[in-house]
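Allow me, if you will, to draw on your knowledge of protein folds for a short while. I have a record of one protein: its chain in single-letter code and its fold written as discrete structure tokens. I remain grateful for any guidance, and I place the record below:
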Amino acid sequence: MKRRVLYVSGTRADFGLMRATLLRLSACDQLEVSVVATGPHLMADYGMTVEEIRDSGLRLAACVDAPVTASSGGAMAKAIAASLAGLVDVIERERPDVVMLLGDRGEMLAAAIAAVHVGVPVVHLHGGERSGTVDEPVRHAISKLAHYHFVATPGSRERLLRMGESADRVFVTGAPGLDGLAESVRWSREQLAADEGFDSARQIALMVFHPVVQDAAEASGQAAAILQVMRDLNLQVICLRPNSDAGGAAIMGQLLRERSRRFRLHTHLPREKFLAWMSAADFMIGNSSSGIIEAPTFGTPVVNVGDRQAMRERCANIVDTDYTPASIRAAVCRALERGRRATYNVYGDGRAGERIVALIRSIPLEAGLLKKTNAY
């Protein structure tokens, strides 16, 4: 009898990271994989990226509508509540053998709460990582609800053990988002630049800047500081829309005012196109986890602005800076001087998917698994 795996996806980001692994799981004769789409996946303003799930060929089990109706912490919390209500119904109907979740967003927290109460074991990916913002306690809350952990680094495993998780339930798989990165790049820098009307011989930055919920009131000024530096250095910039967290609308306001021949704003880029830009750009700037985790595989310099990724493990391609224009400018100059170079990626070797498939096929799912306690 096949094991039924239900993966809950809230955004373009987590599905992009998990797509290759989900397809590998689905190809296994012993497993049956379905996906639930919720959150920004179903919002027109964020590109209705549920279509990427449909286009992947994976079974879409359900869509759980949980829109973030305003750019505030309260609206985020209400969206978690809506996700929880809808996900309970889906999990009760689907009755999977295991629910898989990645990362630290509210949709994943809602799914973990729903699964635990319905009586379905939870596998959490990318637990044990630190960031220092609201993402960190949400991530750790999901970890405490989860029954198995597939982590990216030995350091993440050690942190989960110190949090009281059982050693025999925490596995270092590496980051699934690293699988097949080099093979996914289908466009050259020249092709990408031509599509945007850029000059490929001039410097190009890839910008992805999200709000920090606790600093939502400062988000507009923070984005403005980055954009000022991009203008002052006369850089060409390809930019992605920020996520739906509190402060996102303020950042978006700054980005919309910046539209010009040298600045291209996209609501969404397909993952293959985004990775191609990550590979081709002279540097990446902002505060996305993709700069911390995926960019090192390409050797792309990354200017990490602010504290959204403050406590994550670092590779050698990262240049950290605060929000002041002078500091951002100095960091950009250091990144450009350093240039693209091969670097060891602490987050894995690009073989996470095969390890995850082996684990999902073999981990015990007996009834006693649900009676979880801390390992003191």
